[in-house]
Inverse folding.
């Protein structure tokens, strides 16, 4: 597998673009993005489990019910959620894509992200759609910018991989820095690939993948109303279509995981106000499920997150979060270490503290990427979760988000 | 019921004190507290559900197993948790009480609060016990100060009430401002009463009470390792002992609830870094359980808490937290209003936003006590949860707690 440039345009037959159409007040911010495939593609999606679902989610579900789609349209600055006319507006966005591209509205995936509960007008979208479609090309970066809200960096990635001797490509863009604690689906992630794979196997790959990728990310414990991960696979790589489990399916899953894991780290590191990426690696669990539960609990603890902001090796908070996670763990077997590019420091063995150099610990925890390693000494289950530190800036960003 | 002064010394036959013995570095901070009853008292406790349990919890459980106790000793500055010699130290604290008061160590409730995973030495406690016992008297305030960690105000309260024609008194002290998201028990709360009530009925009253009091408080979503609520009832009021359900038991529960609810509000308002008390009142739920789940979810949302800090009427975050609470709710029936001494403002009806004056909302949300009223339109279940806003100060306090 080789990392390449191009984001969602890396795979054959995909074009993208992003423009400022006027939903966001700041004219330097793009707020409308479009991704199109030259041909109809297998489509798989996972969605938020929040009972409050953005109108675009309802519309997208209907449009991909047949397993296929050809375009993705997404605006930022307004979530189109909790609005009486939400579904009508989301359908309107798809119709505008049809009008300007000829792709049937029923083959368009639609997404929105931003403030909840403020009416979204079709007017700016109608006004911007012409230039959005006209500028379609190798513009994955513009599309990545078009879906950003409080994100500080655009998030895109692409890899090549091989299926049955054919070179395939897979790429993605993503957004999300706050209201992030996915449950079965998360944030907005759009993946494109030219691999040939049936809608069923594509959905199977995606549903399995999110359990170890986006569902293991937490910025603030809030599960959004608009989370969505969507993969389009247009088959233009010419490989023998993946239609069942086997070597090719495993290779595809590996490629998908490469892309999603990259974005998980990227999203956690750009968490609202974050100064540090936190990666919690749990090993020795009785089961994979227990490992996931423990890793997620630690990465979500406000107290642990604040301690990491302060480079304070307060490992008692790690043990505390393991203890209240609800997972079946023998606390007297738990080991904890902190690791970064500055070194590794062991702080807890068998559930009790061990002496360590505070100076050394400060050095390790002052890095911008920190691993907390938790050994449960109880089996072979392992899992990784991603999060970020809790900072003044998080509070500032969210104390007055709407203005 | 009448509010009176005296805290844990309001009830007949209870004395208390608090001193600085040297566990905390700051000599102006008391760090050791003692409450004693003239006679053995019925004792009931509830404890943290965290798998990591402080050593004092294990010792207390054993000491109150017979339903009785006569003293409570508690230090701050060190949680005596995750230490290999923790149980030995906690037993040592009880023995020191026995040595200086004559009360058997097996009738002493012991508690510790502070940093997890640092060895606790008996030395300062042994040194301070003499003056602690010597100063026993109407010193509920000293005891309240002795159990504080990052608390900014001491927390105590007392009421008179009547049981079978006899005047009884009930009072309490409490501490807790961080690592607060109780589950079946919480923080440190010590309640004293001179009512006569059997250990069984006392436990029944307490276990029922915490479901609607301390279990409905959240400061930061972290469930502590040392949470404990303990009630001592010494019977000196001379009422006919409460030994079964009935009018007197109901009256006792009402008095207990008065005390615990007061402390819930006090603890939430003094939440680490908090500038505002948030009170979430849910009505119209299909069941009480659903009402509790929804109220707790909203009060725990970091995004909602940050919005309240900024006096931002971002009600979408309220709806979002209702939606991911896991409770069985019809989102299309949900009403939301904000209320404070500055007025009431309706922001959402039937799951959709309604027009409101931002200026008016800012006024309502700038008060230091804010109610968020959620109507579910689905039944008669109701519940209240207490929390606080998320501020820069919370991050500051927890970024470097140990130094």
């Amino acid at each position: 597998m080789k990392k390449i440039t191009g984001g969602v345009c890396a795979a054959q037959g995909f074009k993208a673009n992003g423009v400022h159409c006027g939903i966001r007040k700041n004219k330097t911010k793009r707020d409308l993005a479009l991704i199109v495939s030259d041909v109809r593609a297998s489509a798989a999606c996972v969605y938020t489990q929040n009972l409050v679902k953005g109108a675009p989610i309802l519309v997208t579900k209907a449009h991909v019910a047949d397993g296929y789609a050809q375009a993705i349209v997404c605006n930022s600055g307004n979530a189109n959620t909790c609005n009486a006319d939400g579904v009508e507006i989301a359908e309107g966005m798809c119709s505008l894509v049809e009008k300007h591209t000829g792709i049937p509205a029923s083959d368009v995936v639609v997404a929105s992200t931003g403030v909840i509960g403020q009416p979204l007008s079709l007017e700016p979208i109608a006004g911007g759609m012409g230039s959005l479609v006209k500028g379609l090309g190798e513009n994955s970066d513009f599309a990545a910018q078009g879906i950003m809200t409080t994100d500080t960096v655009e998030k895109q990635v692409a890899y090549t991989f091989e299926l049955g001797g054919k070179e395939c490509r897979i790429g993605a863009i993503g957004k999300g820095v706050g209201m992030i604690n996915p449950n079965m689906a998360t944030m907005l992630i759009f993946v494109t690939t030219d691999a040939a794979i049936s809608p069923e196997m594509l959905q199977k790959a995606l549903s399995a993948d999110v359990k170890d990728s986006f569902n293991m990310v937490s910025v603030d414990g809030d599960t959004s109303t608009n989370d969505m991960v969507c993969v389009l696979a247009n088959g233009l790589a010419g490989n023998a279509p993946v239609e069942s489990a086997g070597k090719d399916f495993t290779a595809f899953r590996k490629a998908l995981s490469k892309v999603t894991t990259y974005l998980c780290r990227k999203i956690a590191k750009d968490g609202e106000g974050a100064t540090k990426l936190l990666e919690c690696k749990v090993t020795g669990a009785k089961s994979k499920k227990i490992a996931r539960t423990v890793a997620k609990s630690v990465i979500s603890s406000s107290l642990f997150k604040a301690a990491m902001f302060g480079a304070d090796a307060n490992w008692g908070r790690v043990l505390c979060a393991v203890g209240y996670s609800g997972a079946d763990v023998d606390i007297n077997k738990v080991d904890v270490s902190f690791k970064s590019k500055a070194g590794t420091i062991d702080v807890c063995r068998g559930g009790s503290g061990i002496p360590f150099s505070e100076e050394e610990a400060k050095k390790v925890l002052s890095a911008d990427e920190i691993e907390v390693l938790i050994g449960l000494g109880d089996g072979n289950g392992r899992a990784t979760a991603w999060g970020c530190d809790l900072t003044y800036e998080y509070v500032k960003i969210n104390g007055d988000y709407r203005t």
